[in-house]
Amino acid sequence: MKKHFITALFFSALSFFACSLKKENATKSAEKEVQNEDASFSKSEQTEKVIEEKSEDSVFFNGEKVLDTLFVLDVNGANITLEPDEKSVVIASVPFNFPLKTLEITQSAHTKYAKVSVPRYLRSDGKDEGFVPLSALCAQANPLLSLPDGFRAKNLHDYLLGAQWKKQDAFEFLIFDDGTFRRYRQGEEERIDGKWRTLGGGKIEMCENGEKKSVSVEILSSTSAKIDGVVFESKFSIDSLSSEILDTPRAYQKDNNGYTLLEYAYLLGADFQFVDALIASGVSAGISPYHEQYDEFWSEKKEVKSAIKLDWTDLGELWAESFEYLFQGQDIDADGKNEGLYFCKDNKRVALVKNSEAKGVFLDFGDENPKKDSCSFEFFMPYNLEKSAPFLRLCDGKNDTLSEICDNGVMKKVFSLEAKDEQQGAFRRILFSENSIIVVDFQTQYGCILSDNVLTFPR
User: Fold this and answer.
1) 179-196 pLDDT per residue, tens
2) Interatomic CA distance for residues 69 and 74, integer angstroms
């Protein structure tokens, strides 16, 4: 902790004072700094050069340097898939110009893919990593000094969602969420809530106090727009340092001064828990002194590999005729290729299959193999457990069972609950993240698998 604190102070002195921040009074409170942010928080060319020259901010593929944050190039957005395959399951759709934390670059067939961190606000069922074709990404965001061909109402919608809009030369903010918006003045209790939608043709409809109004939106740049004839700029404020922002696209974008939310969190002295959450969400560290902490977190994530050993069998070219797809998997044996869950029609057994190599391994359930027609399956792998391991959930009408997949496909039962009719609805959930599995059952019990320890608690 002391080492990190000294590093933070040293890096701060080197980078932030070299940025010509032009603060009028360095001893002002955080609130005053926010109110003077137009004059205070602007990056210099020297700062940008520091970022570009940091080798730890890059990943490499075949000796080629790739920045660790890439931007969606296609005006139609990009899909994040579970595997590096265009036919794989889509786990999230990311809008045009959105920044993505890049973990590594991989080659699949004839296509290069970027393995990326799924933005927190788009994560579902714990899937926080996926793949995007490298051709769909670029090193720099589009400055939007002119709109690209194909820019539609959906793009305008995503653009407005991606910032906290501050009225130029005033402390009035306009924040758009999906279908709703709020307008308020910083430091004042007065707040106006309303509804909105895009109309096309550079217009949106805003409904305030029961009155609907068609409002024009002229995009001036990626971080500034004229809304109803008034210039607004993307600006973080002290109100941005709330965990609620982590579940919105606003957390990932830079503001009009070129600052990421993680840099802003440093400037305003945000608490360590909020900083940790920003780092884990993939928000760029920029020129903040959190680089060491940021690099350590993501390096550890890359290094976590499964220790499971599987004896793969060649299934032959016509394997797909004998196997039926059940559930998408992950790279459980750390060879860079994902495995899926399949059912073999010939021997009525469940298998893990590498469809890119036509190889498989049958799972050993002991005396009784699950029946496909009477079971539902879930397959997931929290990768930051002390011993990273894949888990399989089976619901067969009688029991709701969670098992660990061990060496050679042997299934080790972790626990089994009595199945309920409501298990497919909101009655029971098995949630998983990078370091835990949480089983929620609102009538019997709930439990948590954390660092290879199983904990259960009575209701």
Assistant:
1) 999 998 866 667 889 999
2) 16
